[in-house]
Each structure stands twice: as C-alpha cells, then as structure tokens.
Write a structure and sequence with these properties.
CATH class of the largest domain: Mainly Beta
Oligomer: single chain
Largest sheet: 5 strands, antiparallel
Strand content: 35-45%
Structural class: mainly beta
Number of helices: 2
CATH architecture of the largest domain: Beta Barrel
Strand order of the largest sheet: 6-5-4-7-8
Order of helices and strands: HEEEEHEEEE
Radius of gyration: 16 Å
Helix content: under 10%
Length: 140
C-alpha cells in the first residue's frame, strides 16, 4: 500500500547530491551501490570521494540484494511514542551485503526469527509515492 505524506508521519531520509541515485534505484525496486571508477571499491553510504583512493569518479551498480545479518537491536520502547507506538517491537539491523558493504536497515520479520549470520534478502517498502525504503527479510 502506498501512503501519502499526510498519513505517513515518520521521519524520512532526504536525498542529497550523493544519495539521490540510491533513492531513485530504491523507487525502482533496485538496490544500487556506488563503485569507484578508479579502484573499483564499492561503498555505502554514498559519498563524493572514494575512501580508499580518493577518486571523485564513481558509477552506480546493481547489488544482488542478498546478504547476511550482522547485528541487530529490537526496539520495544518507541521514541517518540506518538509516532512509533504501533510499530513496536521492530528490528533495526546491520546487513553485510554479498558485495562486501554493510547497510543499516529494518528487518520485516519477527525478532524471534532472527539468528546471527542468517541469509537475508532485500524487500522494498513503498512508503510514499516518492519514497521507497529498502528493508530485509530472511532469505526464502
């Protein structure tokens, strides 16, 4: 279900010069990563300069959307309560993608279904017409 700005009252990411292609890819249900054109290093989050070789040249490449659960927390006390009360418990996680980068995300499964290093895959949540969030679930 696509929500409107009026009924989606949670904080949303704001795309900037470096991250706009990532968010546009998510809207197309594609997980994109930035690859340095000079040394080939993949990076997330997107940035204007490669942290390995300092090149400012990069291109966007599609990720497989698969990875492994690295770490997670279960949020049981919503802050602020008026926004997140209906969502608890929810899981905030770090996923190591097959491509070698780590991405912060939410898991779409119950907290008790999680295990360290479990295989996961991306799913896309169309929260508004102009915003899609990448989330992860156990690999099917």
């Amino acid at each position: 279900m696509i929500r409107t700005m009026l009924d989606y009252n949670k904080p949303v990411p704001v795309a900037d010069f470096d991250s706009t292609p990532f968010w546009e890819g998510c809207r197309q249900h594609r997980l994109l990563l930035q690859r340095c054109s000079a040394c080939g290093h993949l990076r997330f989050p997107p940035s204007g300069m490669c942290p390995h070789c300092r090149s400012t040249q990069s291109k966007w490449v599609a990720a497989t959307g698969r990875g492994r659960l690295y770490s997670w927390i279960v949020v049981r006390h919503p802050v602020p309560r008026e926004i997140y009360a209906g969502d608890v418990p929810y899981v905030v996680a770090l996923v190591n993608l097959e491509e070698g980068v780590r991405i912060p995300t939410n898991m779409t499964c119950a907290p008790e279904d999680l295990m360290s290093d479990m295989p996961v895959e991306v799913v896309f949540d169309d929260v508004m017409p102009n915003l899609t969030l990448p989330k992860f679930r156990p690999l099917r």
